[in-house]
Predict the structure of alpha-1,2-Mannosidase.
Amino acid sequence: MIGGRVLSVRTRWLIPVGLGTFLLGVYVFTYPIDPSWSSIQQHIPSTWPFGPGRPGPPPDSNSDWNPHPPGPPPPPNSHWNSWTEKTGSATAKESDYIYPHQNPASPLLVEVDEEKRNAVVDAFKHAWGHYERKAMGSDEFHPIKGVGTNLTYSGAGIGYNIIDAIDTMYIMGLKTEYETARKWIKEHLSFRRKGSVSTFETTIRVLGGLLSTYYLTSDQLYLKCAEDLGSRLIHAFDTPLGLPVSHIDLANPAEWKDSWGNMKVCPAEIGTLQLEFRYLAQATGNETYWRKVEKVMEVIDRNTFSNGLVTGDLSLKDGSFFNTEIRLGGRVDSYYEYLLKQWLQTNRTEPFYDRMYSKAMAGINDNLIQQTPNQKLTYTAELIAKRGVKIVEWTLRHRQEHLTCFIAGSLMLGATTSGLAPGVVKASVPPRPEEFMARGLRDWNTGTELLETCMKTHDTATGLAAEIVTFKTEESPPHAHGTDEEERDWFISGNHINSKGAFWAPWDAHYLLRPEIVESLFLAWRLTGDMRYRNYAWNVFQAIEKHCRLPEGGYASVANVDRLPVKHEDKQETFFLSETLKYLYLTFSDTSVLPLTDIVFNTEAHPLPVFTPSTIKPGLS
Ligand SMILES: *[C@@H]1O[C@H](CO)[C@@H](O)[C@H](O)[C@H]1NC(C)=O
Ligand SMILES: *[C@@H]1O[C@H](CO)[C@@H](O)[C@H](O)[C@H]1NC(C)=O
Ligand SMILES: *[C@@H]1O[C@H](CO)[C@@H](O)[C@H](O)[C@H]1NC(C)=O
């Protein structure tokens, strides 16, 4: 059964029937009409990019609408957070705003940048087309050899690449590609594939992709497949405490049971399933999915440190955290991301998650946020446990993963929702300082500063950011890291050893086509309307085009971002199609496409709707 709420949310989009004729006009102009395609499209949210230009004027526009409202131009090199340095308090002067906002009660709408958006669509076609010709149906793709591989023992795939990419096709309006992908799902997709797959990766990429495509299209095919997959994955939660095991056999989902005994899991893999299973519950009306993932959050909440932080490892048996490492990168990252997004997903009706989120952000602020002594770059460090006889001592390690850069945009999103002052329902674009409560302002500033630092990590030979950077501290001796890196406040660990550009590259030096920085740029762009973020995103895209694009088709990872000519590695990760190119596309779309007020992106960039729980009553408060 489809939850009534889903339908009523959808009908909202059908209300402006008055615009219908106009929409259809634009639509006919943009795509050759095909009845089945257009019948799918009528279910797309009103935010659907109907080709160039948006239907009708923005709701608050006067006739002289201008995407860049009049006002003093930003001073050179200024950005939002510079005002705190100047004033040091929460009261800002009018002159501190980048874009003074005429009507703060209404969203700022900024037009599409068609040329750049089309360049991103072209990149998607280049990446997908090569996969479709060479490896259609395979889970993973190696674009240089032009071959695919599958994740299961049986040698058959689970639709990993196709399902991860299909909603991007739909959002980009790539009809031919979309129909090909849908046909594959309809005719070939099966989850009765023997082998061990990751509960987490399968949930965020496959379940998430099916659910978002269902949300966008209302096509029951996707919900049916999602329910089939969900009913298999749900067996992962059959452990004494209800914490899911990391891997599961989709063909025989109950079989893992013998081996769960001494398993360690990480917060990201058990705390990044909730958006997907909660929406599955909402869409099917089956409460089981909701309760299973909710229970996990209750167990985590009972076991976090008093400052809201967690380490990367906890016991599946008793839920306790091991004293290993406290950080924001791999193993933990999306756990923090989903604290905020669970609260947003249910339309801010579950204060439980808001409390967990704000406590964790305070813990991060107090313990992990650092500044370089030289250029004053804000960055995130890690805390490493050193075990003595009785006590555990935590020491800082000044290492930041590319993955960690998600936190910049997440802090900004959190500041403009969870961090709003009492009585402020919606933040302006850009937000005004007085709209924040103290912790909102703190997180906004930290987020914008971290994003600047993440952009600084693109100061490499290729303009691509490394997988891991290490920041220089008072203690790092001068010239310790190779003469070519003196200018920077950070270095790529291990890279000075082969400064002659040998074949070997340390892991830290890779670029794997990751999305986290463009994800944060997209959020920053939407929340501020500040062109600097669009420009940054364009620079990142240009570097990808220059160094990752393969002439025959596809995009490859780069082994060392700081060495030219680049050495490619033979992998085009599915998240390049699902996340990197989607966030870039959305950054150059107009701001009404998938508005942040109506949707939450899962950690794989699959958009899911915000809804108010009705049939299912949330159990944590
Ligand atoms: C992976 O599995 C799919 C079927 O699910 C099949 O079409 C494809 O050929 C397989 N790829 C490889 C490399 O075996
Ligand atoms: C709800 O989902 C669970 C898990 O897949 C399943 O066992 C149960 O039969 C479903 N309930 C209904 C009413 O469909
Ligand atoms: C969210 O809540 C607000 C105010 O309580 C309400 O106006 C809005 O319709 C809700 N949105 C959804 C998607 O349920």
